[in-house]
């Protein structure tokens, strides 16, 4: 990953200082692959997916806390409210777990796909989560 960072930083540094001799050493496909919007798409897609996964994880933790709080709070009563509320929370927990499984597998597959793509272009492993 450090090779990728140094390559991109060298390219933009030489673009900034108008060093065309350095840029002539690259082929057109290398310049396009390093500076294209595809890399921004990769970062944004996997970043948004990871953000959604983490936010759903916090919702899951919050539902667990509320569920156990109400179990302790209403332990002496047998109201229908307690049963319905706990069933709703269990349903929410189940939905959030399914969403987390979806986002986690989606982010994992995207990361694996782009690792293969960039390793075939640059010859080294590219991992979005190591940045």
UniProtKB/TrEMBL annotation:
Q: Which residues belong to any copy of the ABC transmembrane type-1 domain?
A: 1-130
Q: Which GO terms describe its molecular function?
A: ABC-type transporter activity; ATP binding
- Look up the coiled coil feature and give its residue ranges: none
Keyword check for Phosphoprotein, yes or no: no
Residues that span the membrane, as ranges: 53-74, 80-106
> Which keywords does this chain's UniProt record carry?
Membrane, Transmembrane, Transmembrane helix
- Any one of the GO CC terms: membrane
Please indicate if the UniProt record lists Membrane as a keyword. yes
Instruction: Give the domain of life.
Output: Eukaryota
Q: What is this protein called?
A: ABC transmembrane type-1 domain-containing protein
